[in-house]
Amino acid sequence: MREVHQEFLLGLAGVSATLLGTFIVGVFFYIDSDMHRRVASSAAIDTYLRSATRWVFAAYSIPLLVTLVLASMEPLLGAMTFAVLGGILTLMTIDTGRRLLVKGGSGMSRALVVNEWLTSAAVLAAIILPWALGGWIPEAAAFVPSLLLILASGFVSTAALVMTQFDSTKGLNMATTTSAVRAGGSSPAAPEGTETRK
């Protein structure tokens, strides 16, 4: 395989750190918003969103930490780091899938369902690829396809979570408007011949 330069690994770590930092800021803003308080009323949706958030954190941490280890240490330590973090990500993938299957877990969002299937397949492929390409102790170049795949999966999952919140906001606004219209339409009419006192 082609040799991977240290600059590329450090650049990939920088991109991962930027995405992870942006995601953390977004999570803090979401927790402090009214939208989180409304969604939190549904236990299944709130539990899935917590699990999915942990998954995104783990996904961004792999290309961040593994690239730093590969750039500064021996390939064996890089392989061990990838194996440990990959195992954690696999367990979290199973957890998000299990919580999505709970009734109401997806919040009726097709984006979350499609994303769950795609990321599950991507994680499985990413865990296998380094050893399929590089043998028992893969070189740094053997990890690059997996790291890029995991980074892309984290980005897609972030986009799916954001779009789901937009859909939830739209649904809540429509429900609020419908309730207001029904409440206004059901108010009793004033009897004929009566005047409103000023």
How would you portray this structure in words?
Keywords: Membrane, Transmembrane, Transmembrane helix. The chain crosses the membrane at residues 12-31, 52-71, 77-96, 117-137, 143-164. By secondary structure, this protein is an all-alpha fold. The chain is built from 6 helices and no strands. Helices cover 81% and strands 0% of the residues. Helix 1 runs parallel beside helix 6, helix 3 (43-72) packs antiparallel against helix 6 (140-185) and helix 4 (75-101) packs antiparallel against helix 5 (110-134). The longest helix is centred in the last third of the chain and has 46 residues, at 140-185.
Notable features of this structure?
198 residues; mainly alpha; 6 helices; 81% helix; elongated
The domain tally reads 1
- Cα-to-Cα separation, first versus last residue: 87 Å
3D shape: elongated
Q: Could you tell me the number of beta strands?
A: 0
Structural class: mainly alpha
Radius of gyration, in Å, reads: 24 Å
Share of helical residues: over 70%
Are there runs of 5+ residues with pLDDT below 50, and where?
171-176, 187-198
- How many strands, what sense, and barrel or not for the largest sheet? none
Average pLDDT, to the nearest integer? Answer: 82
Order of helices and strands: HHHHHH
Number of helices: 6
User: Which percent band covers the strand fraction?
Assistant: under 5%
Keywords: Membrane, Transmembrane, Transmembrane helix
Transmembrane segments: 12-31, 52-71, 77-96, 117-137, 143-164
Topology readout:
Elements: H1 6-31, H2 34-39, H3 43-72, H4 75-101, H5 110-134, H6 140-185
Keywords: Membrane, Transmembrane, Transmembrane helix
Transmembrane segments: 12-31, 52-71, 77-96, 117-137, 143-164
